[in-house]
Amino acid sequence: MKYYEYDSDDKIAALATPWGESAIAVIRTTGQGCIEALSAAFCGRKSLSKAGPNSMSYGTLKDPKTGKKIDEIIAGVFKQPRSYTGQDMVEIFCHGSMAGIAEILKMLRSIGFRDAKPGEFTLRAFLNNKMDLTRAEAVNEIVKSKSVKGMDIALQKLSGALFNRIDFVKNQVAETLAEIELQLDYPEDEADPEASLNIKKIEKSLAMLKELSATYKVGKVIRDGVSVVLAGKTNAGKSSLFNLFNKTERSIVSESHGTTRDYIEAFLLIGNIPVKLYDTAGLRDFDNSVEEIGIKKSIEIMEKSDIILYLVDGNAGLDNDDVSRMNLIDANKLIKIWNKADIALKNSPDDFINISAITGEGFKELEAEIEKRIGAEKIEIDDAVIIDSERQKNLIDEAVKSLSSSLVSINENIPLDLIAVDIKEALDILGEITGEVTSSDILEIMFSKFCVGK
Length: 454
What we know:
Strand content: 15-25%
Distance between the termini: 18 Å
Low-confidence stretches: 1-5, 191-195, 251-261
Strand order of the largest sheet: 3-4-5-6-2-1-7
Helix content: 40-55%
Number of strands: 13
Largest sheet: 7 strands, mixed
Shape: flat
Structural class: alpha/beta
Order of helices and strands: EEHEEEEHEHHHHHHHEHEEHEHEEHHHH
Number of helices: 16
């Protein structure tokens, strides 16, 4: 169902906290008449319909049809337009019993509420001009952020940093377009086209957009993290190193060859950057079909990874198979590791990092090298505006393309009406970023990625 195929004023409800046992759960409701509808189910010192804006009321929630007590709650009442959605809202703070939550949601449906769709509360906030599209995207990014830096970027956008940057550029472009349209309306007054067009405004706008676009690579790393794969022969110590990274016995460690026959993954932070770490099957000539599948999966993951930690057993030493396999790996993502440094019988080559996955020797040096490869030490948020949305990146690049084309046209003395086409196109694209010019299809795709209750 399309988001725009229903009445955006109807009453909706959803669990805003994760589904499961907890001390407290929050059920969010909004829509025209939601306060009055809940007043019939709420028993407190005073009716919810008489509660003041931005107030909390303690009472009992009952089924208005049967009178059955469901739970003791606190109801937060927020009246339009001073609410998250811009509509009347009631947030129900109840006990985190899964059975109780289900009963409350069932009761809400019986008194005229329908289940909210993913992101529908934030969609209504956007439709009611409580936030622009960049802030709406930031809401989802905050919920899904995997690191402190990811939270910092999202909070910065939620505060309006990206909107302000785009809005400034948009105003510069709009002023240039107005100047062109003025000249087109009064051509007899045209004197020096190049001066009157104020090329510096376009050049400044172009530079700011290019700077924003360039931050996407960093933003994407902070948002999605990087994939790091442990590779090498059987018994090189991959599983022991995997456990050392995770500070727990996640992977089976055994002297038997081929213990790991499928990959294992875990999430962790390195340099405050999210990392998906993979322990893979040992690379060797397989002797059964199960191990063959595991090794093929390992190779697939290695090909898609950002960093490969290739382990060599310091006792067995380096052989031609290791050299051949490492030669097939992009040097920019390869980190060579000489494991079992505490008991190694052979010296490591100069380009290897010596570690012991058992004692932890050399582990800090390995982490520092991974941070260096990720570029984590160079990532500073501070006051810089960073984008991590592919939608925003693509639109900014389209705007750059249009403004660049307009500059070429100006330098080649192309007629003003043709120059205006490129500048108007850039202006419309910038409007798409903030949501001033956005189709319902785009909104549906965006908000469908939100969690229910947000």
